[in-house]
Amino acid sequence: MREISTLSQQLERLSNYVFIFVKEDGYMSYKNYPMVSRVVFGRGSFNQLEDILQSKRLNVKAPFIFLVDDVFKGNSWLTSRIPLAYHDKVLYISAEEEPKTSQVDELVEQIILGHKDHPSGIIGIGGGTILDLAKAVSIMLTNEGETRNYQGWDLVKNPAIYHVGIPTISGTGSEVSRTTVLTGPNKKLGINSDYTPFDQVILDPELTNGVPKNQWFYTGMDCYIHCIESLNGTYLNAFSKSYGEKAYDLCKAIFVDKKLSKKETQDELMMASWHGGMSIAYSQVGVAHAMSYGLSYLLGTKHGIGNCIVFDHLDEFYPEGVALFKKMKDIHNISLPKGICANLTDEDFDTMIDVALGLEPLWENAIGKNWKNIITRAKLKNLYQKM
Amino acid sequence: MREISTLSQQLERLSNYVFIFVKEDGYMSYKNYPMVSRVVFGRGSFNQLEDILQSKRLNVKAPFIFLVDDVFKGNSWLTSRIPLAYHDKVLYISAEEEPKTSQVDELVEQIILGHKDHPSGIIGIGGGTILDLAKAVSIMLTNEGETRNYQGWDLVKNPAIYHVGIPTISGTGSEVSRTTVLTGPNKKLGINSDYTPFDQVILDPELTNGVPKNQWFYTGMDCYIHCIESLNGTYLNAFSKSYGEKAYDLCKAIFVDKKLSKKETQDELMMASWHGGMSIAYSQVGVAHAMSYGLSYLLGTKHGIGNCIVFDHLDEFYPEGVALFKKMKDIHNISLPKGICANLTDEDFDTMIDVALGLEPLWENAIGKNWKNIITRAKLKNLYQKM
After folding, report:
1. What DSSP state is assigned to residue A146?
2. Could you tell me if A211 and A49 are in contact, meaning their C-beta atoms sit under 8 angstroms apart?
3. What is the phi/psi pair of residue B177, to 5°?
4. How far apart are CA A96 and CA A116, in angstroms?
5. Chain-centre distance of CA B130, in angstroms?
6. Which of B4, B15, B17, B18 to mutate to test the interface with A (most CBs of A within 10 A)?
7. If you ran DSSP here, which 8-state letter would residue A208 be given?
């Protein structure tokens, strides 16, 4: 919870927000969240991108930069609809690895050196990796120094340039969140700021047509785990709860009940991702995310599958959530990798534990204010050893 | 659905929106909805009003005008927390009757004559009646002529002045909608416009403490009926559906399952109203609202109870929704007035039917494009006669 003394300034500065107030020990404290202010939803709505960008072009020398998942390279169904003009540029980016602070620095340098003017905007087209890169690049184009210096909470000083998020896989919640999670030299941690959220989001379920099944499951589970962590967290409030419950119900309908058509499944999972993202925006994630950041930092494990690997062992913290997760794994014949920590050294474990324990708000949400009494290094090591 | 040709202009003009795109017969059509851009939620968050208004004061001569439900007159728990300064004014307003266009005209005249400068803002504190008046007054302070001329869709030319909505009863969805429903000399119809939604909403469930039980039920049912009409409408889309389903589930937990504490019930009903309002914002209401506008226009029936009286007879259109409604009535020992149309003349019925049939988008949503073949004057008369 941030200090209440700066409320008036914050209220004035932000044009779109939800503030959640909570009474604690007689005092009011609050959390504020900027909202994505412009959303377009619907099958085929990707075709509106040209209209949307039209009024946002600063001048003919200021290009739009499209960061596009390289799985779409050569896929003219999508790429032919990217509206290019003047000096606009498509940069294809691999999402094989989790996004890095150094990668953001390189992209920013490439964009600045390659164009006379600052871009009119950054458009991310892809999954959580591409969307997080788009958010980070748009921030770093207007903020000095290295990206690693902005990992944390509210360290960004200047508004980002105009940025648009277009998810092509559902579940990460990156389209709605106020963070962009990056692996830096010292830690895996998001740039959490009021300037992080997209100015515009296009939710076109058709774009998720080609997602491979395993990835569909892992990324969908990212949403499911968001709900479990939010709904079982100490930060929970009625606002967050209603979004989390809805996303949870949608996940159940999609991954357990399986009564929906393919199109309905795509539509509903995109909405689940949205609502799940809204839920954690107004509360916080928990144990699975904290520990999965450790895995990802050390081993480069992708976020979706990393969450699944961790969550599978968290029945102590989320008994019902984990039981239903195991059921969903069975229904969809998903077998998770095993023994990924088998050959790690004590130093490796220490590294992962350091990254995980650094995410204090996540632990406080999951366990409560006294979390340091409960979450010991030994306990985390024991859990990691099972994975 | 509005014409797609104006999309670029609309996209540029609105700073907060959701656009829902739908493919029909191979063509894309869309609906756009401005969003409430600033929301504060939490028990006791009404105390933040002073901070919120601080930066919005134009100058010391430009007052904030507080439209307050007169049930709060003398209730210092609430009134002492209304932050008055300079020439700010509280106008207590009765919500006994549905809001009228003439009432808006009078309020606007009173405000203009009573102050040298245009107000800094209008703050509505009350139920749907007060909130709708606050929205309408804020529009009419910047738009010429009489309020009646703006009843309809997208007739407002100039942005409204800054306006804040603070609900003290939950269910109407007025806090989130792009309409303000008014009874005019010729019709009961909303001012539907992009300028109608509040600039700021404060959702403080504590403010609903003193609501009498019957009114609590009727207004809660307004929300429930929003969900049924939205979820069973032809305008339904995945966006609207997810909000409608959530509000429906919350209504069931509140009015059927009854396992929540008093505080939880207040919190959850305020969220239900929000989600229910979001659902109809992205789709439309239906038969109950259309017919209840008729009742209200002729007999002055308040919106909440009017919806209930109508909905009780709509099992032909909403069989499951009406069955559950009857169950909720039983659980809460609610007995609705009967025979309110018993002594009406043929002319009276014609008047109600004219008002109801005038609401074309509601019928199209409820029945489909061919609704005129199904909804005859005789059918509506027959239904009204049962009430």
Report:
1. -
2. no
3. -85, 165
4. 31
5. 10
6. B18
7. G
- A43 part of contact set with chain B, CB < 8 Å: yes
What tokens appear for A330 in the block? 């069975």
Residue B7 pLDDT grade (very low, low, confident, very high; cuts 50, 70, 90): low
- A295 CB-near residues (< 8 Å, 6+ apart): A301, A306, A309, A310, A340, A352, A384, A387
Q: What is the pLDDT of residues A72-86, one digit of tens each?
A: 999 999 999 999 999
Mean pLDDT computed over A320-335: 98
Compute CA distances A174 → A36, A331, B19, whole Å. Answer: 11, 27, 20
Distance CA B237, CA B367 (A): 16
Predicted interface score ipTM higher than 0.90:
no
Mean pLDDT value across residues A262-290: 93
The tokens for B250 are 């919350």
Cβ neighbours around B60 below 10 Å, total: 11
Please report the sign of the dihedral spanned by the C-alpha atoms of residue A17, residue A22, residue A27, residue A29. negative
pTM of the predicted structure, to 2 decimals = 0.91
CB B16 within 8 A of CB A38: yes
**Residues in a beta bridge with B32:** B19
Between B21, B55, B242, which is nearest A45 by CB? B21
Contact B38, A16 (CB under 8 A): yes
Q: What is the DSSP letter of A160?
A: P
Tokens linked to B227 = 């969900």
**B237:A41 CB<8 A:** yes
Mean pLDDT of the B89-117 span? 96
How far from the centroid of its chain's Cα atoms is residue A323's Cα? 24
The structure tokens listed for B69 are 């439900």
Residue B6's pLDDT is: 59
Q: Give B185: exposed, middle or buried? Use CB within 10 Å, 0-12, 13-18, 19+.
A: exposed
**A2: confidence class by pLDDT, cuts 50, 70, 90:** very low
pLDDT at residue B1 above 50?
no
Bridge partner list, A91: A67
Those residues with Cβ within 8 angstroms of residue B47's Cβ, 6 or more apart along the chain or in another chain: A28, B81
Residue B159 touches partner A, C-beta closer than 8 Å: no
**pLDDT-derived band at B254, boundaries 50, 70, 90:** very high
Query: In this predicted model, what pLDDT tens digit does every residue of A107-132 receive, in sequence order?
Result: 999 999 999 899 999 999 999 999 99
CA separation (Å) from A381 to A201, A294, A364, A376, B307?
39, 11, 19, 9, 59
The helix-helix angle for A238-252 and B238-252 (nearest 10°) equals 110
Quote the minimal CA–CA distance from B122 to chain A in Å.
18
Residue A284 has pLDDT above 70, yes or no: yes
List the beta bridge partners of residue B29.
B22
The C-alpha atoms of residue B108 and residue B10 are separated, in whole angstroms, by 28
Q: Say if A15 is an interface residue toward chain B (CB within 8 Å).
A: yes
User: Quick one: tokens of B35?
Assistant: 């969003």
> In DSSP terms, which residues pair with B182 in a beta bridge?
B189
Q: In the predicted model, what is the mean pLDDT of residues A335-341?
A: 96
Q: Point out which residues pair with A18 in neighbouring strands.
A: A33, B39
**Which residues in chain A are contacts of B20 at CB distance < 8 A?**
41-42
**Closest Cα in chain A to B12:** A55
Q: Give the pLDDT band of residue B5 (cuts 50, 70, 90).
A: very low
Structure token digits, residue B326 = 């009857």
Contacts of A55 in chain B (CB under 8 A): 8, 11-12
Residue A167 three-state SS: strand
What tokens were used for A257?
Answer: 């009940």
Query: What gap in Å lies between CA A193 and CA A9, rounded to an integer?
Result: 15
Q: Say if residues B341 and B385 touch (Cβ distance below 8 Å).
A: yes
Residue B343: partners with Cβ closer than 8 Å, 6 or more residues away: none
In the numeric block, the tokens 């809204």 are attached to A278
